[in-house]
Amino acid sequence: MEHGAPREPREPGPGAETAAAPHWEEAKTFYDNLAPKKKPKSPKPQNAVTIAVSSRALFRMEEEQRIYTEQGVEEYVRYQLEHENEPFSPGPAFPFVKNQDGVHWTWRDHSEALRVGPGITWVLSTSSPDLFIERFCMTGGNSPICYLKAYHTNLYLSADAEKVREAIDEGIAAATIFSPSRDVAVSQSQLRVAFDGDAVLFSDESERIVKAHGLDRFFEHEKAHENKPLAQGPLKGFLEALGRLQKKFYSKGLRLECPIRTYLVTARSAASSGARALKTLRSWGLETDEALFLAGAPKGPLLEKIRPHIFFDDQMFHVAGAQEMGTVAAHVPYGVAQTPRRTAPPNEAPSAQ
After folding, report:
1. CB 205 within 8 Å of CB 231
2. pTM of the model
3. How far is CA 89 from the centre of its chain?
C-alpha cells in the first residue's frame, strides 16, 4: 500500500461485535442519564386521596393567632413579615401529613389564616425536606370551604371548629384536630388511622336511641336491626378512600406490607351491638384492619397501645381522653351528641321534671 493512500475498510474480526457491545451500552446509559427527567405525573384528584389541612392544624401558630385575634389583620401581617424566615414548629397534623411518604397520596392545603403578605412563611415551612405539600391555597381570610369540593377533598382538618362544621354541612368529611398532652412516638413506616363508629363512620341513629330511651332499649334496637345496615356517617367516604389505596396493595399480595392500617375503636359491646357495626361495614364493601369493642370502657389507654397518627371521635370526652394518653385526636362535630344541653340561668330555678 502506497504511503498516503486511503486504507481499505476492514471487516471486523471474530468477536469484535460482542466486544464493542458493552461499550455501546455503557455510552447509551451515560447519555440517557443526561436527559432531563420528567416529574412523575400526579394522579387525577378523583383517583387520589386528597387531604386539605389548614395552616393552624399543620403548624404551631398560637402566637400568630393571638395577634390576629387581639390586634387585627395589619399587626398580624406585620408580625408574619418580620418572622418570614423562621419556619413554623410542627402542629398536631404534622405527623399525619408527613407519614404520607410511603403512600402515593395527593395532598392539598387550604390555608385558613394566612393573608397575602405573609404567604412566604408558609412556602418556606412547607419547603422542608421532611414534608411534601404538592399544592397550597391562600384564601385572603375568606373561608376555604367553597374550594374543597372543587379539589375533590376526602378529608379536611382544621383548628377552627366553625369551619369544620361548615364543611360537614356541605357533605365533606372534616374534623377539628387537637394536640396531645404529651409527645408519643408513632410509626414512621405505617400510617395508622383510628375511627369511632357511631356518628363518625356510621350515622347517629343508635346514639339517638340511647339518648332518648336508654341503654336497654338501645340493645333491643340493635338486636332487632342487626341485619339492617346503618346509614353512613361523615367519615365513611374517607375510610372508603383509604380502602381503595389498601386494595392496591392487597391485589398484589402485599396485605401485610400495606403502609396503611385502619382501626375501629368503638364503645359498642361485641356481644350485644358489635355485630351490626361489622355487618354494616361489610355491606359497604369496607373493612378495618382491627375492630376493638370496648363496651363503654375509656378509649385512651387502648389508643396509647395502637399509637395512631390520628383518631376521630364525635364526643369531646373521648377526644380529651385520647389527648391525655398522647394521641392526636380529632373531633367530628356531627350527630345528636353535639346538641347543647339547656342549662337554667343563675336566677332561674331548674324544672322539677
Report:
1. yes
2. 0.74
3. 19
The answer to whether the CB of 318 falls within 8 A of the CB of 273 is no
CA 121 to chain centre: 23
Catalytic residue numbers? 196
Interatomic CA distance for residues 204 and 231, integer angstroms: 8
Q: Is the pLDDT of residue 14 over 60?
A: no
Q: Distance (Å, rounded) from C-alpha 141 to C-alpha 340?
A: 29
CA dist 20 → 25, 28, 313 (Å): 9, 12, 67
Which string of b and e fits 94-115 if b means at least 16 CB within 10 Å?
bbbbbbbeebebbbbbbbbbbb
Please name the amino acid found at residue 226: E
- How far is it, in rounded angstroms, from Cα 313 to Cα 8? 86
Q: What is the pLDDT of residues 149-177, one digit of tens each?
A: 888 888 999 988 999 999 999 999 999 99
What is the Cα–Cα distance from 326 to 260, expressed in whole angstroms?
20
Write out 230-295 in H/E/C secondary structure.
CCECCCHHHHHHHHHHHHHHHCCCCCCCCCEEEEEEECCCCCCCHHHHHHHHHHCCCCCCEEEECC
Tell me which DSSP letter residue 102 carries: G
Cell of 24: 455501546
Residues written for the chain: 353
User: Backbone dihedral region of 129: left (phi > 0), alpha (psi from -120 to 50 degrees) or beta?
Assistant: alpha
Given the C-alpha cell 413554623, which residue does it identify?
88
Asked if 153 and 130 count as a contact pair (C-beta separation under 8 A), the reply is no
Q: Across residues 264-271, what is the average pLDDT?
A: 87
